[in-house]
Amino acid sequence: MGRGKIPIKRIDNTSSRQVTFSKRRNGLLKKAKELAILCDAEVGLIVFSSTGRLYEFASSTMKSTIARYTRTKEEHIQVVNPVASQVRLWQREVGVLRQQLLNLQLSNQKLMGEDLSGLGVEGLQALESQLEMSLRAVRKKKAHMFADEIDELHNKGYQVHVENMELQRKISLMSHENMKLQRKKAQQNLNGFEPVFSNASETTANIITAVPLAIEIPNCTGTEPVHLELFEPCKSSKENQDQVKE
């Protein structure tokens, strides 16, 4: 007498259901393994029991199989509906960016000394080490910037010194030229006051006449200075005699 066909429906008896699950699970895993070996196929099998226990089989690795499945599924969706696939891609990208932003905010709060309640001793030590490394990097950068500014100031100071020396040289040349011009002008003034006589036989009486020019000669005895007046030469000896008589 042959074995009767079991109806495909939920088995109400718990013991029978457990025995059936165990037998068919083993058979399913065996068939998956045989399929992978005989047909050189990549097989991945995942089974959860009613109690939540996991049973799995993968011809390579379950992670690579799931990744291949996800990639192939997305490519199929892109071929069938490219707009929907693009929307899903952007949604997934937005989710990744949102998670990264949340992680950065939490890390920033910890670096600022906020929300440290969830950290243990090891977490606090790691945070302290990170802060010390950051502080050393900041100080190194600041020292480098100060050194660059000092070098720049030294270069500017040297340029100012060179310009100052050049200006002093020019001032010295201008002062020398000015002294030469003053000496030349004084020599010209002295040459302009030399007396010119038309006749060497004329006496001093012929050259004395009233001229509004007075020269003070200091007196060594301590009295008042002596005033001398210069006169223009007379036009004739007769006029000179008349002035002497007067």
Which key features would you list for this structure?
246 residues, mainly alpha, two-stranded antiparallel ribbon, 5 helices, rod-shaped
SSE blueprint:
Blueprint: H1 14-39, E1 44-48, E2 54-58, H2 62-80, H3 82-111, H4 121-192, E3 214-217, E4 226-229, H5 237-245
Antiparallel strand pairs: 1-2, 3-4
Helix pairs in contact: 2-3
What does this structure look like?
The chain is mainly alpha-helical and 246 residues long. It has helices spanning 14-39, 62-80, 82-111, 121-192, 237-245; strands spanning 44-48, 54-58, 214-217, 226-229. Mean pLDDT is 78; it is low at 196-223 and 226-238.
Number of helices: 5
Computed over alpha carbons, the radius of gyration is 60 Å
> Approximately how much beta-strand content do the residues carry?
5-15%
Straight-line distance between termini: 192 Å
Order of helices and strands: HEEHHHEEH
Main beta sheet = 2 strands, antiparallel
Percent range of helical residues: 55-70%
Q: What is the mean predicted local confidence, pLDDT?
A: 78
The strand line-up of the biggest sheet is 1-2
Query: Care to count the β-strands?
Result: 4
Class by helix and strand content? Answer: mainly alpha
| C-alpha geometry | rod-shaped
- Poorly predicted tracts of residues: 196-223, 226-238
